[in-house]
């Protein structure tokens, strides 16, 4: 069974010493109440809830799973009671406007909460997590009446939300979607169709579930241009939110999955279900991206969570498991063998998980500042700028951190050896729960194509260029005056190489359209390693300065520097391998004819 201790010290390091959230909060209206004392109090309470309530339910949810019976879903033992505590604590609306029942704090405060909840119990955290996407979509695209009715209840937590996108025949290609929405005389619509892979689509935690659904209106254009977005409640209500009758929405089944057993992944059938258009007709996919980007950042947190939980649970085992003798001499003479943490390969696996967890935390928390600016922007120009910058980072965060989180979970199992492969220690659950993260909300391959295709080439390299400038600015500044000049030099060198490889790849694509697709995964992974190097370089500078000043927490800062050294020496060089793959011939991927795939 896994255990969880909230990494409050490292969270405080990131938000206070590295990213200076306090100064950031003074620049946005919602930050007025987010004083350092308030942030600390909320973080500690969220940590307590995660450690004492959610973490003990993690294995319970995995073993019991969700139970389906004639369209109704029962969640695992303890989930409902934990959710009621969540509602009573006012956690759901932490970062949403006061006028709709929220607490009006910055979006980034909600992200801290999400990390703590998700690491303790990802399956449970998906129920309120999916609601956040529905809340953000309603806030950005809903009418005032829709916000008063649905957003207020979602902020309370008495209602939850989902997103219903894909269908069995189309996967990520939503242009093939068939669900229909017929307009009614009263301005509502009747929706018919079936959606699959709907996380938290049916459960017994809340009194109503608000589905955000993609469907086509009559005569809509083919493909993605003809998709609209609708609000479809499980139960119909009056205008004041009083529940009336059951809507034409039913859970046809739940999936039997590799992991996240405590969350119901549903087939949801709509049979003349009453719905209401959200946003403009035929612009549903654009509106849904508000939800999808929320979900993608949330999924990036799952990658961070996997690395953090894997490290926390593998470390004690490595300290207490005695096997063989250290190559450099006996370390535990009173034991039959030395603790396995003295073996270099075990340290390699532990430090990999730690570096990905702490580096990923810095990456995500910095991105959260863009979310704050986007929501709190006073002009459309500022809002668009923040949204675009966050949009550039989103595929890197989602794909890179979930891939590295899965690697961390696998390494943690390996630390345990054969014991990691059995259920007793809970390590294999971390891996099983994390495996989906590289797939849902767009696979790693889809994120890679989004990054190079939409965010770099189609954008005309503007966002890409702006990100490079940030890396160069930090690198050259600290190359001159920093305490860790070697890291700044490496950061500059890898950024220059990134620019060169990108130009070469795009040039090849002008002659061969498959060149981008063949190189996209390696481009994304290089981008991820480079991005994380930027944050590790920053963390190393902060730690070095703190040590120079003297004072408390010497061990913390020394460990930060040692982890930075591991990242730059052992993990960042992987980017060179990805660069080599980016530059290799497209024929190595595309030349094999279909008949030769079966010639074995």
UniProtKB/TrEMBL annotation:
Keyword annotations of the record: FAD, Flavoprotein, Oxidoreductase
Record domain Acyl-CoA dehydrogenase/oxidase C-terminal: where: 282-451
Cofactor(s) the record lists: FAD
Boundaries of every Acyl-CoA oxidase/dehydrogenase middle domain copy: 163-272
Gene3D superfamilies: Acyl-CoA dehydrogenase/oxidase, N-terminal domain (1.10.540.10), Butyryl-CoA Dehydrogenase, subunit A, domain 2 (2.40.110.10), Butyryl-CoA Dehydrogenase, subunit A, domain 3 (1.20.140.10)
Domain Acyl-CoA dehydrogenase/oxidase N-terminal: 40-157
Domain Acetyl-CoA dehydrogenase-like C-terminal: 497-592
Domain of life according to the entry: Bacteria
Family the UniProt entry places it in: Belongs to the acyl-CoA dehydrogenase family.
Protein name, UniProt field: Acyl-CoA dehydrogenase
